[in-house]
Every structure is written in C-alpha cells, then in structure tokens.
C-alpha cells in the first residue's frame, strides 16, 4: 500500500520534468540573441553561401545598446539578416517588413506590364490565376501567370490548354512571379511532359548544426491526367521570377520540348519556415533546400537557355524583346 | 408461480405413488417432499446480481499551456474546452476482480503568446481502453485498482501566422499503466459521495513527428515519409494524466465534478512539444444494464456498480 502511494506521488511530482525551451528576455539583447540563435539553428544555406555566422554576431551585437529604440533594433536585425542574401529571410513587425531584395533590384527589370498588356490585348481569357490569349498571326499561345499564390485548378488548365491546343507553340510567362504554392508548380508542369521525369531533389535539416542535413530525396514529375501540351513551349523568366516560380523554371527546364528564355530567374530555392521573437516580431527564413535535377542549388537562380534582355529600342516602341525572341524560336522550331 | 406450483404438486403426487409401490416409510416421504419444496422456494426468490455499466459524460473547460518548437520557440497559453465520456464495466473475464475502463474524448484549444502575435488553435480526439485489477481492500469503503491500458490520440496545432509550417500534426498510440483509488465518503446518510483519483501514463508506444525542419509538403505531397513514426518511451515521450472526480449518485443518475491535469511531452528530432491542460469537469453519471444481460432476468435484478 505504501509503495503504491509512493509511486503515485512520484508520478504526480513529475510535473516539473516537462520539456522546456530557452526563453529569451523581451529586451533588445534578448530579441537580438533569439533572432541570431533561431537563424543559427534553422537557416539552411550557411555552408553553401560560406557565411561565418559567429562573425556576424560579433559585428552586429555591438550595435545593440540597452536603450536602443524599436526602429533601430529592427534596422540592426534586418541588416544582420541581409548578410544571408536571401529573399526568403524576412522580419515582420507591426510597423515594418524587413527584406532583402537585391536579388532583383540590382538587375534589369525585363518585364513591363504596359508592354505585356499590348500582347494580351483586351480580350484575353482568365482561367484561375492564368491569363491567356492567342498571338496572331503566328498562332502562338500566350499564358501569363503572375503569382503562384493565385490558384490554378486542373479544370483551369484543361480550359486554358484546350483553348490553345491548336497553336503551334505556347509561351508561358512567369516573369515578375514572386512565388507561392509549390503544388501549382508541379500541377502546371505536369501538363507539359509526356512521361515521368526526375525534376529535382529536396533535403531538410535534421538538427541544429549548420551541416545537419538529410539525404537528397528525389522529386519526380508525372504526366498530367488532363489536357496536355507537348508542342514547343517557352517559359519566360526574369530576375523577379522567385521561389515557387523559380522552382517551376527549374522543373520545366528538364522537359525536352521546353526552352527557358529571358533572364536568369531570381532564385529562392529554400522552402521558408516561420518563427517568432520574444517581442512578437515574426521571422521567416529558408529551412529546406530544393535542388534541380543535377543536384545543384538554384538558390541564386536558374540560367535561361536563351539569355535576352528587353532592349532600349524595343522598350521605346513598346515591344517586348523577350516575347519576340520566344515567338521567333517557336516559329523556327515548327518550321523544321 | 402458479404454473411452477402445479408442476411441483404433480411431481409430488407421482413420487407418493412411486414410494407407496416401493414401500417407503411415511417420514421419509415427508422429508423428501419438504426438501424438494424448499429447493423450489429458494429458486423462486433468487435475485440476479448484475454488474452494471457505469457511464459518465462531462464537459470541461480550463487552461492550456503549449510549446511546439516546430511552430515557435515561444510559450503559448490559452483556454481549452472538451467533452469526455468514461465507461466502466465488469468484463466477462476476471470473476469480479477486474474492471474495464474506456475513455473517449475530444478537445479544442485556442492559444496565443503574451503579445497576441500568433493565434494557435489546437484540437484532438482520443480513445483508450484498459483493464484494472481490484486489489484486496485494506480500508473500508476504499478500493484500489491498477492495470494496463491502450490508447490512441490524433490532433493538430494550427498557427495562423506561419507560412510553410503552420500545422503540427499529432498522432500516437500507446500502452500504459493506470492506478486508481476510489473512496465512498458518507457525509450524508443515504447520499454517499464517490471520490476517485486516477493517474495514468503511457509506457511504450509510437508517435508521429516530422524531422527537425521537414515540411509537410515533403512528407505528404512528395511522399518522403521515412522515419516519421517514432517509438515512444520515457526517454523521448512522457505523458501523464491526473484525474480527480467526485460523483454524487441520485438513484441511477448522478452528478460528476472533477479536475484533470493532462500533460503531454515529446522530444524527438530536436523538436520539443509540451501540452499541459488543467481543466474542470462537470457532467452526469448513469448506471446502465447492458442490453444482452437485461433480457436474462429483469424482475429480480440487483444492479451493482462495478467500482464500488
């Protein structure tokens, strides 16, 4: 009897054995340390980018004084995070969003909405997130997809590709597409391949160390079940083609009938996760790298098959040099 | 009764005729007749003891405390609401030394950081079934039970703020041990209180957890589900449930009030998860007779609560 009561007391007293996580103080030093530690343990590109994160700590912790105000603290943290050179690394507060946008701001824009509007015309159709039309007189289909956050259903693809089925080629434009859902990337790409192909690899961190990674896991792309398109296809990209759109370009590059034309895509191959700081600010960072089919990183973008920028002369004439290059490519391919 | 009596009379008459023929003594006839008659009377007055099915259904409300480092390193606190149904009955085995206990529960919690920066909702449903052995009583009106149980629970946490890691799914099955003390407190004559304290903890099992930074996209969309089921032992998982209830039976129905402290901890793949619920229960209890036993003898039924 006594033993039983003793056992019950022991079990009941194990309340104190609950798992705990280091809780940082809600002061400038605590917020800074939390931010640095979360990235130290969870960010996935330290080794690939050859970043000495300890050195970064020394550099920025000196700027954290006891009386630093919120604006200044935010700026210091944002500058520290910019050392990662990653568009997926953001800091969110109720008064500002910290970001690193050098991956497109330092490059030619290569996309102008008013010029694209000329090609789409006024009678273009909309299927989910897709805007599409037929470019005459070449009879080339043109689809503009501005964000992978806009949904594209199987039915949307059936209608869009069904309408463009008789075109001699399709231009699929993902310029200025900042990403969104990877599921749409797979769904759309599956309509352009007639067979199952290896489209890339994914990896995840297995621990807090900078090099604690799982084995590469292959990603396959199967042929879509709805209306498909296997004629010459061109994907247009620019430096603002980022994240899921960058992944789409990387996948499409493996399909034999597809060419990438335009500028190098913006990159952003790390699947972003979120966390938060003791003062309630939200932190976003790359957590799980996605590789292309040759096991190479695409964090800094995917090179096009045909590199072309919008020329100044064409810009003045409201001509999209990249679309014109794509049209010439399809015309040439279909002549043969 | 009349029908039985007539049959008995006929049997006696036949016996008299038979005994006369076999030249038996009158005294012997009387003794034999009385014996047969008394045996019939005992059978007609037999009361059928039935172990009833004790059921308690409660709703609960209380406080939650959460930590799931897959979602956030910060502690979350909030409120939790739930429904629990408990059933206790005597199984076919055990000769009244064992009881069977079943719990079905569901809960929903709403949690936030102290800054209100990341609303996280959670929910779970679960089932457990166990058998408890009744130890020989040492104190009057007190019973002690110990025994094993199996349980399964599935649940989720959903953080409204996170992008690619908004959900933390929970699923586990386990085999554990329970200990329960019941005490009948007679503060008011004819209106006893039944007090119960029960503690239970899983000893071995399996549970789901992604790898440290593995996304659900990788697990469910791409199909990389290697190593997401983990053996659960006290080294990586520790759960504990403390339950105190007070039942006030009024005839076959009664009132239950209680308090539950429910702790769940896992620590695997550098992902820490802690969930503490402290909830107050209120509901009703009822004694049932299982349908298949009821048809046996409904007139002379003595329903016995399996706990007391």
Explain what this protein looks like in three dimensions.
- The complex is a heterodimer of chains A (336) and B (308).
- Chain A is 33% helix and 19% strand.
- With 336 residues, chain A is of the alpha/beta class.
- In chain A, helix 9 packs parallel to helix 10.
- The longest helix of chain A has 15 residues, at 28-42.
- Chain A starts with a helix and ends with a helix.
- Chain B has 2 domains: 2-45, no CATH class; 49-304, Lipocalin (Beta Barrel).
- In chain B, 16% of the residues lie in helices and 59% in strands.
- Chain B has 4 helices and 13 strands.
- Chain B has helices spanning 2-21, 26-45, 216-221, 291-294, and strands spanning 48-51, 53-68, 72-89, 98-112, 120-134, 142-159, 167-188, 191-208, 229-232, 237-250, 253-268, 271-288, 301-304.
- In chain B, strands 2-3-4-5-6-7-8-10-11-12 form a 10-stranded antiparallel barrel.
- In chain B, helix 1 (2-21) runs antiparallel to helix 2.
- The longest helix of chain B is centred in the N-terminal third of the chain and has 20 residues, at 2-21.
- The radius of gyration of chain B is 29 Å and the shape is elongated.
- Chain B starts with a helix and ends with a strand.
- The model of chain B is unreliable at 1-7 and 29-45 (pLDDT under 50).
Helix content of chain B: 10-25%
Globally, the shape of chain B reads elongated
Oligomer type = heterodimer
Radius of gyration of chain A: 24 Å
User: What is the global morphology of chain A?
Assistant: elongated
- CATH-assigned fold name of the largest domain in chain B: Lipocalin
First-to-last CA distance of chain B: 34 Å
Radius of gyration of chain B: 29 Å
Number of helices of chain A: 12
Question: Could you say which structural class the secondary elements and strand pairing of chain B correspond to?
Answer: alpha+beta
Question: What sequence of helices (H) and strands (E) makes up the elements of chain A?
Answer: HHHHHEEHHEEEHEHEEEHEEEEHH
In CATH terms, what is the architecture of the largest domain in chain B?
Beta Barrel
| Main pleated-sheet profile of chain B | 10 strands, antiparallel, barrel
**CATH fourth-tier homologous superfamily of the largest domain in chain B:** OMPT-like
Structural class computed from helices and strand pairing of chain A? alpha/beta
